[in-house]
Amino acid sequence: MLPRTPRVSRTPRTPRRVRTALLSVLTVFAGLAALLLGTGAPPAAAAASLPCDIYGAAGTPCVAAHSLARALYGSYNGPLYQVRRASDGATTRIGLLSAGGYADAAAQDSFCSGTTCIITEIYDQSPRHNDLTVEGAGGAGAADVGAPADALPVTAGGHQVYGLEISAGMGYRDNSTSGVAVNGQAEGMYMVTSGTHVNNRCCFDYGNAETNNLDTGNGHMDALNFGTECWFSPCYGQGPWVQADLENGLFQSDAGYSRNTANTGTGPLPFVTALLKNNGQNHFALKYANARSGGLTTTYSGGEPTASGYSPMHQEGAIVLGTGGDNSNGSIGSFFEGVMTSGIPTDAADAAVQADIVSVGYGGPTGSTGTLNPGSEISLRATTACCTTEYVRHQNDAAVTSTVTSSSPAVDKGDATWIVRRGLANASCVSFESRNYPGDFLRHFDYRLHRQPMDGTAQFRADATFCPQTGKSGTGTSFASYNYPTRYLRHYNHTLYIASNGGSNDFDSSTSWAADVSWVTGSPWAP
C-alpha cells in the first residue's frame, strides 16, 4: 500500500440532521416535481435536501462525496478543496458561501490573483473523510500532477464556481479509505461530468480501485468510466459512453460489448450525469442523463461480466478520480461532483438525485451580457462592410466567422456565444470561454485560432489571452494577442487569425486590416 498523504486540519462540520426516509423522499419530490416537468426555473439557492441527504434517507448513505462546485449535504459547511499557488507554494482551502450552498470561488480568485494555482486536495464531505490527493505513480503511469484550479469556470446555482478539468497526466486518489465497498459488497456511485471534454484513452474513472496503484486482476475495481474508448466491440454510435471499469475492461454489459443498440452515447452534452450500481455478486446497472434536464436512462441492467473474477467482485476500496486503477493516465475529462454509497440505491433515490442535479442549473446564464467584464456572455460581430452579419464561432474545433441570425439553428447560436473570463495570462486582459464547451477557450496556434481545452500550461494561458483596445477602424474593439502584441484577432476568408498590419502571410494583408480587426461586442446568441 502506498503511504497516505497526511490530512490537513479540517474545518469543524455542522452535525447532520436525522431525517426519516419517507419525509426526505416526499420533500425532494415535492420540491423538484415542477423542475422535472419543466415548469420552473432552477433556483439559485441550495436545495433543502441534497444528494447525500436523499441517499442517506433511502438507507444507502454516502461514504464519499466530492465536489468543487457545491455542498452535497444540506448541512455541510466545511471545505470543498485545497489549492496551492505557484508564487510561494502557499495553500488555502476553498469552502462554501453558506451551509449547503455553493463554492466561494471569489476566495480562490483572490488567493490566486497574479499567479496560478493547482488543486492539491478534494475533500470528502461525508463523515468518512475519504479525501483525494494528487495520485502517485502506478503500474501504468508516472506520478500525476494537480489540475489547474481555474481551467473550468462554470455557473452553478447562479454562482460562478469551478469544476475539475483533467488533462493527460492528472489524477487524484485515496488508497486508505473508510466505509468503501470491498470483497463483493454492494455500492452505488454517480458523477456529473461533460460530454465535450473526452478522449479514447484509458481511463477517466471515478470510483472503487486497487489500494496499491496496480492492476491486481479482474473484479478488483468498480468504477464509473466516461469517454470514447470502446474496449469491447461492438460499441454503437460515437460515444462518449457511460461504462463500468471493473478492471481489465470497460464494460457496457455482462459480455463487455454493448447489448443495447440504442446506446449510442451521450453525444456532446456539456453536462452529463453518469451512474453505476453494483451489488458485488451478480448484478450491475448503468444509467446516464442530461445533467441539465430530464430523467435517467438505463443503458444496462443485468448480470456481472461472464469472465472469471467478476462474480463475486473483489473490490479493494480505494477511490480514484481521473485515471485507471493502475494509474493509466492518458485520459481527459471533467468532474463537477460525485458520490459513492454503501449499498445499492433505489431507483427512486436515483431519480430524486438527478432532479436535484438538474436544479443546480450547471452552465446556466451568468447574469451578465454584452460587455467585456469578466463573467459576461457575448457574441463578437465583424464590422467589415462585407461581413456585418458574421460572428466569431467555433466549428470542428476551429474558430471561424459565419452568418448567425435569429432563425439560425440553436447549435450555431451556441457556437457563437462566448463567456468573457479574466485573461488566463494577465488579469487586465480577457480570455474567451466557449459557452457550450465548458473549459474550452479561444486560443491561437501557428497564428490560427482554435477552440481548445485549457491545460494549465503557461503557453496555453498566453495563447488564450487577448488585450482589448479601441477598434483600429474607430469602431468597436480590437483584441491584441497577449504574447504577440502587434498581432490582432482578425477574420480573413471566414477564418480567424492573429494578424499583423502587413507581412508575408496572406492573412497579414493591409487591405481592410483595420476593419477586419475591429469587432462589436454584443448580446449573446445563445439564451
UniProtKB/TrEMBL annotation:
Catalytic residues, chain numbering: E247 (nucleophile), D326 (proton donor)
CDD domains in alphabetical order: beta-trefoil_ABD_ABFB
Gene Ontology MF term list: alpha-L-arabinofuranosidase activity
Lineage: Bacteria, Bacillati, Actinomycetota, Actinomycetes, Kitasatosporales
Family: Belongs to the glycosyl hydrolase 54 family.
Name of the protein in question: Alpha-N-arabinofuranosidase
Gene Ontology biological process terms from the UniProt entry: arabinan metabolic process; L-arabinose metabolic process; pectin catabolic process
Alpha-L-arabinofuranosidase B catalytic domain: residues covered: 51-362
InterPro entries: A-L-arabinofuranosidase_B_cat, ABFB, AbfB_ABD, AbfB_ABD_sf, ConA-like_dom_sf
